[in-house]
Amino acid sequence: MSTSRKQVILGAYLGGVNHHTAWWHPRAGSQIDFATFEHTARTAERGRFDFFFLAEGLILRERAGQIFDQDIIGRPDTLTVLASIAAVTEHLGLAGTINTTFNEPYELARQFASLDHLSGGRAAWNVVTSFDAFTGQNFRRGGYLDPADRYARAEETLNAVHALWDSWNDDDLVADQSSGRFLARADAGKFAFHGTQFDIAGRFTVPRSPQGRPVILQAGVSPQGRAFAAANADAIFSPYGKLPEAAEFYRDVKTRAVAAGRSADEIKILPSASFVLGDTEAEAVEKYHAIRNEQVTGQTALILLEQIWNRDLSGYDPDGPVPTIDPDPDAAPIIQGRAFVHQDRFATARRLREVAETKKLSLREVVIDQFERGPLVGTPAQVARHIDEFVNDDGSDGFILGSHLVPWGLDEFVDRVVPLLQDRGVLRADYTGTTLRDNLGLPPVRSGTSDRRHAGTAR
């Protein structure tokens, strides 16, 4: 294959509290034991993946005031897990989801700069927001933010964190020849940030980390979310796994990045995807349908639709038709703690009814058909070809991959698909960079004495 083809970025995510994980499988492992995280990370590194990604839920999800009885409960603290994984890997990036709504810039800057030092330059922060009082009840400040303010706080939080990271320059630690120690310059670590959310000043305790700044990840579908990500993120999670929607999203975000004064290459677009492999295409499709039928039970299908309808649908037959009643967006939320990704409840309900009518599907079959993260289904050769062509047709810059089987599922992809991607010349045979930024093809972030930034304001 031509070496001019785009290189595929690969991230690995660990399936957790959701209906995509086959927690009942005889070979399924714990969601809490360190061995689960270690095996997934080591497998990803063996496959020359760019990074390991952890999502985070800040509260146990509920339906009508009761904990979901089909959810997996339990996930250790993200940064603790990533720091532990840093000790058993050498090259793999370590990406963690941490909320801007309930955390302070100083804490965030210190935690991620520390992880970047401990890992030798492999830290990444997935910047997310939370605006609901249900999640906020676990925190001192509660649900104090109006939904419209969440990106304002997120952007100011990120700007403040950047000011803290940039308070140290690369040359602020100077070798003292007489003692053999490194001494800090007099103004090292000084910062001041004045905004609408934060008014802070002091000295930052962590010297500039190997990447200068840890990699910033973000997910945003709305125009506001896309604008925030295009201006601030190094990579953005795309919700689109199929063309042409994926290519349209790709072009839109890259265009927004250029409009924000950046190069289009400075932001990477990465959809998440599951995979099912077979020795033949027919075998893979059969396995995929069997897995999905087990994952999406009748109860699961009803709960997924309840989040859209915001109504109690327990009286509906999962094997019957999609509800004809309209959603009730003004009622108290029946589902709590699950991110709402549908921009328009009424339009989504209409679309599901139209799909059901066109394809002659029941309620549960519609959910199986529509609530999937762009699965990669086929033989290893077919999946490798699809990934290569999708990336080189500018549907994305890579994929974040996860399996229904935790933690063993990723092994099959690494053993059977990775060698084919390497043969096609679109995946590294070995790591060449020393940091996550290097491996992602992102420009380095360095700061010299002449461009020190002691202060920042919300843009």
UniProtKB/TrEMBL annotation:
Residues 449-459 have a biased composition (Basic and acidic residues). Keywords: Flavoprotein, FMN, Monooxygenase, Oxidoreductase. The keyword Transmembrane helix does not apply. Gene3D superfamilies: Luciferase-like domain. Its EC number is 1.14.-.-. Residues 439-459 are annotated as: Disordered. The keyword Glycoprotein does not apply. Residues 30-392 form the Luciferase-like domain. Signal peptide: none annotated. CDD domains: Nitrilotriacetate_monoxgenase. Belongs to the NtaA/SnaA/DszA monooxygenase family. PANTHER family: ALKANESULFONATE MONOOXYGENASE-RELATED (PTHR30011), C2H2 FINGER DOMAIN TRANSCRIPTION FACTOR (EUROFUNG)-RELATED (PTHR30011:SF16). This is NtaA/DmoA family FMN-dependent monooxygenase. It comes from Nocardia aurantiaca. The lineage of its organism: Bacteria, Bacillati, Actinomycetota, Actinomycetes, Mycobacteriales.
